[in-house]
Amino acid sequence: MVNEWLPVFIFMIIMSVVVFVILAGTAFIGPKRPNPVKLSPYECGVEPVGEPRTRFSIKFYMIAMLFIIFDLEVIFFYPWAVVFKRFLSGSSFILIEMLIFVGILLVGYVYAWKKGALEWQ
Amino acid sequence: MDLIIPQINFSAIAPALTVMITAVVVLLIGLFFQKVQRELLAIVGIIGLIVSLGELGRMWGKDITGFGGMVGNDNFTIAFQMIFIIAAFLAALLSLNRIEDEYVSYGEFYGLLLFALSGIIVMVQGLNLLIVFLGLEILSISLYILTGFRKMRADSIEAALKYFLLGAFSTGFLLYGIALIYGTTGSFSFKGISSYVNANGFTNVLFVAGIILFLVGLAFKAAFVPFHQWTPDVYQGAPTPIAAFMSVGAKGAAFAVLIRLFVSVAAFSTREWTIAIWVLALLTMTIGNVVAIVQQNIKRMLAYSSIAHAGYILVGVLAGNEMGRSAVLFYLMAYTFMNLGAFGVVSYLGISHKVENLRIESYRGIGYKYPFAALAMAVFMFSLAGVPPTAGFIGKFYLFSAALKAGFVWLVILSVLNAVISAYYYLRVVVAMYMQEPEEGKVFELPAASWGVGLALLLAVLGVLYMGIFPSSLMQLFQKTAELISML
Amino acid sequence: MIPATNLLILGAILFSIGVIGVLIRRNAIVIFMSIELMLNSVNLTFIVLARQLHSLDGQIFVFFIMTVAAAEVAVGLALIISAYRLRATINVDEINLLNG
Predict the structure, then answer these.
(1) What's the domain count of chain A?
(2) Number of helical H runs and strand E runs in chain C
(3) Which of A86, A107, A114 sits opposite B3 (nearest CB)?
(4) Tens digits of per-residue pLDDT, B309-331?
(5) Domain C4-87: which CATH class?
(6) pLDDT of residue B269
(7) Which of A69, A111, A115 is most worth mutating to test chain B (most B CB atoms within 10 A of its CB)?
(8) Is residue A101 part of a domain?
(9) In terms of residue numbers, what domain contains A101?
(10) Residue A6 and residue A35 in one domain
(11) Which residue ranges make up each domain of chain C?
């Protein structure tokens, strides 16, 4: 087991050393004569037209926040679904319990809706 | 694996349910009726609080457990819950103050206040670390939002951000502690932990580490030194009624859990733990008091004073006897009245046209211009300092005599010295109000107080004086509850 | 199967990385990510312990931690956005209006 993979391991070590030596070597030995054209991204292409980082609208945040909350509430359905069938035979309590839970989520949904968090304007 | 639906007993969580339902109702009223008066919202909330007080009264003496032993209400827990409901009641009245016009949405404000209270109730009645954790988080998340409620003010948001980052950090410790406790004991319930300790003691390093991490998490919430640095910033930035509620609610809930843990695990009375708590109590009260002396902002001063008071209460916890536990309850009740009252006066006097009057210097000479507010403030300051015949004096007396009975002579001597130090900065406010000339020749102008603030201050003054002059009936009640801390 | 001890050690290492991240980083978002790392290392620990102890309690606890963490994310990011709007920075060293 060990012997089979030993060459790969040695190869990885040699590879890391070579990569490190080459990168470090160019960084230390290579001449550095920077000028504005060289420093700009895509030296040989078009002029950069703006910052590479663009700002997101706050609306994405609202949607993401609502998504993460409602998405995570769903994890409580999984254990419920696993035992659902076995319990339903005895009484409908388990069903009512989940309906209460969904009802609480609905209150949150109505709140978000009424507050205008779901509108994309 | 055999699965059984645990016995569901909604009456065991009736008070928490009532508070939660009221919170949702208040939230929805505020949502659908934008023009609704906030007095109405406050009144709806207060009705909910009174109903849940009634539920608690009905449960008194019955030791109701539910949900497979996850929650339980013995008299001790019920007394704690009643104190927190009174605190929320006073905070709701205080936030009717005019400066709180900066709040844009009252429905959310009162809803979150009630949610925070429901978190405390869940936390206090939990007999299982899962329930304690859930209650703590309901409380904390509501308080993060409430702290940053004045969202156009940089100081409010800053306070909320600090509280949030440190609170979430401490939650991490608490959870890792629970994980280690679970790994070693195989149980989340206090009963399971107790039987594990009875069998094995504190021999397992991982278990001890888990308990320590859990206690560190609680200590953050209760603001014990050295986990107190967030307190003054948060209290300064938070809306004043919320700071008042936090100082009683968040701290008191942590104390309830701490006492529950110490009572259920008798082995905590061993020497090492006693020394650790001894040092913690002394450090907490001393640093709180010493740093409070140099504060210029009254909210920061009250924040440090609340740290010091947590130290006093810890003395009662350390005493570990029935008298200590009933003294903790008594002191928490007294502290609710005097601290919410003091913050209430600060909230009222803080109203001004441009900036809040929060410097202690700006209180100079108000004793003659605003006699009622100043008199109330003086009562609260005397009580916080522990001057007879106020509730603060009797509370400290009970706490310290419980500790004396348990044999902590030196700690009591040092605590009394601390109380003497604290008198300096409390009385400085009284001196400023009555014996110094106002700044710039005249006292600031204030609009008339709303009825809510007046009622809250009146109730707080009456509470402080009643508990100071006729303490015996309440104390007997609390003594009974402390004997009956049975359900484990 | 990976032995439980290794996974528990992994959980401890991740938790420590989270703690160190909170202590040395100064950007509020990065601090918050470190806190999330702490919570998730706790989740890992709980799941491993639940498997080892043959009890489901630990797994149920993980569900609650995840839900609570989501609620904290929502509140925390909202606070960080508000702080950025008011101060144009989320460096915690520059957010220092409050002091005595």
Answers:
(1) 2
(2) 3, 0
(3) A86
(4) 999 999 999 988 888 888 999 99
(5) mainly alpha
(6) 76
(7) A111
(8) yes
(9) 58-114
(10) yes
(11) 4-87
